[in-house]
Design brief:
Layout (H helix, E strand, L loop, with lengths): L23 H4 L1 H20 L12 H12 L3 H14 L2 H20 L16 H38 L4 E6 L2 E7 H21 L3 E2 L9 H6 L5 H11 L3 E2 L10 H30 L2 E3 L18 H23 L10 H6 L2 H20 L1 E3 L1 H9 L6 H10 L5 H9 L6 H9 L5 H9 L9 H6 L2
Parallel strand pairs: 3-4
Antiparallel strand pairs: 1-2, 5-6
């Protein structure tokens, strides 16, 4: 069957392909190959700058530029060539090494062959994981900084606009599903913003670590070949030059603790957004929000009247799929038998899938939010039908002024039975309160009993 968007096994390469386009150059096999090539070439250049390694002379500027062009100009044709080499080697990283050596052979004709004598210093003293851990760290940095965080920032910006616009729009709260002290729509959105911003900071703050220290992390081969070279210093300088944090102590593999940290941080952000999706879904169901109609869109195949909250349902589902993978990454990747096993290899290839479902979810949620319009009439009707929520206000004022058993009195008046504006007014008028206090209580309505909600929402 010919691979198309309709025959793709994964929805990320089919139905949602356009939504994850920005992630494809990062997490595809092409993206992994390109970053492996980058690490290998930068390692060769780092060796050439080390005076104690005389066999790799300082690389002239034109030769250096030739090598850097292999990174910047890495093409689909180059990736296909690596794949063809891998068909023989049956080893993906070795295929990258051979590809670079092949290109160096071509350089002999192009600019004089200065690299020919250094060809065997490609992948010098490296284990495959030296290349892979750095390549994946670079991929994760690009995906986080250039795709995930900008999408999250766009969502936070949209939520902030909503919070400010709806800061003073009163809404009945529901704790345990029961009517509770009123809030405002804007304040409830502000709560989400505060949570998201904290997680956003933690996502951005995760240090992506890397190592290049050989087969079991001890520089064994390095020291045998060049005992006078300060390999830890060179390793640190190289890793940090890539924009990563150096990990001095590893086995054959970088232990992936930073990937677990990043997975957990993104999962927490996604969980907050699942919470938002469910709440908004509920508010749409209650009629607190209306959804903008899209011409030609069908809500149900049989019920013409329906406008379903499909964007929030789609987002919730995709956040859930992503989180299932992020949980597995966090639990599995830091574990490796003895100095190395290969179980992390296939798991790491699925990281892009988790980012992909997160990206689809963020776009769906953002699209859903832009369709929402508050329904003040429905919100007002709900508030006006639940005057019992003012019992908290009345009994608290009674406490301040020393009236006996205020909680018990209001409990007897309100619990398990409806209360009207008139019955509450009669109760307040019977209280031995100062006239100005009584007047303030009598003027109170469910819609005005929102505390500092509007101020808090406006200040987010």
């Amino acid at each position: 069957m010919q691979p198309t968007s309709l025959t793709a096994l994964s929805p990320l390469d089919g139905r949602y392909a356009a939504k994850v386009e920005a992630l494809r150059p990062i997490f595809s096999e092409f993206g992994l190959m390109r970053r492996r090539v980058a690490v290998e070439i930068h390692w060769l250049l780092a060796l050439a700058q080390e005076k104690s390694i005389a066999e790799v002379a300082d690389i002239p500027a034109n030769t250096r530029q030739f090598l850097l062009t292999l990174i910047d100009g890495f093409s689909l044709q180059d990736a296909e060539r690596i794949k063809a080499i891998e068909a023989t080697t049956n080893h993906d990283v070795k295929a990258v090494e051979y590809f670079i050596k092949e290109k160096i052979g071509q350089e002999k004709m192009e600019i004089g062959g200065e690299l020919a004598k250094a060809k065997e210093f490609v992948h010098f003293a490296c284990t495959s994981e030296d290349i892979n851990n750095l390549a994946y760290a670079l991929m994760l940095r690009d995906a986080r900084d250039n795709v995930l965080l900008p999408s999250l920032d766009k969502l936070i910006h949209t939520l902030r606009q909503m919070a400010h616009a709806l800061a003073a729009q009163p809404m009945l709260s529901r704790t345990h599903g029961q009517t509770a002290s009123p809030t405002t729509l804007g304040k409830e959105i502000a709560n989400v913003i505060a949570r998201l911003e904290r997680q956003r900071q933690q996502i951005a703050a995760v240090e992506l670590t890397g190592k290049i220290n050989g087969a079991v992390g001890n520089y064994n081969a390095h020291v045998v070949a060049y005992p006078d070279t300060d390999w830890p210093t060179l390793s640190r300088r190289f890793v940090e030059a890539l924009g990563l944090v150096w990990n001095a102590y590893t086995t054959q593999i970088e232990p992936h603790d930073c990937i677990a940290e990043l997975a957990d941080a993104i999962r927490r952000s996604n969980t907050i957004l699942i919470d938002l999706c469910r709440d908004v879904w509920g508010y749409v169901s209650l009629g607190y929000f209306k959804q903008a109609l899209k011409p030609g869109e069908v809500g149900s195949s049989t019920m013409p009247h329906k406008v379903n909250p499909i964007d929030f349902e789609n987002a919730e589902g995709n956040f859930g799929v992503a989180n299932s993978l992020f949980v597995h990454f966090a639990e599995k990747l830091p574990i490796s038998r003895w100095q190395r096993d290969l179980t992390d290899s296939t798991v790491l290839r699925a990281i892009g899938t988790a980012f992909g479902h997160t990206q689809v979810a963020l776009e769906s949620l953002l699209r859903g939010l832009t369709k929402l319009n508050a329904n003040p009439e429905r919100l007002a009707a709900d508030l006006d039908a639940n005057w019992e929520v003012l019992a908290e206000a009345v009994q608290t004022v009674m406490r301040r002024h020393g009236l006996p058993e205020p909680y018990e009195q209001l409990k007897a008046l309100t619990r398990g039975q409806g209360i009207t504006r008139e019955s509450l007014r009669t109760f307040i008028e019977s209280l031995a309160l100062p006239a100005d206090v009584k007047k303030r209580l009598l003027a109170l309505t469910p819609a005005t009993y929102t505390g500092l909600a509007a101020k808090l929402a406006g200040g987010i």
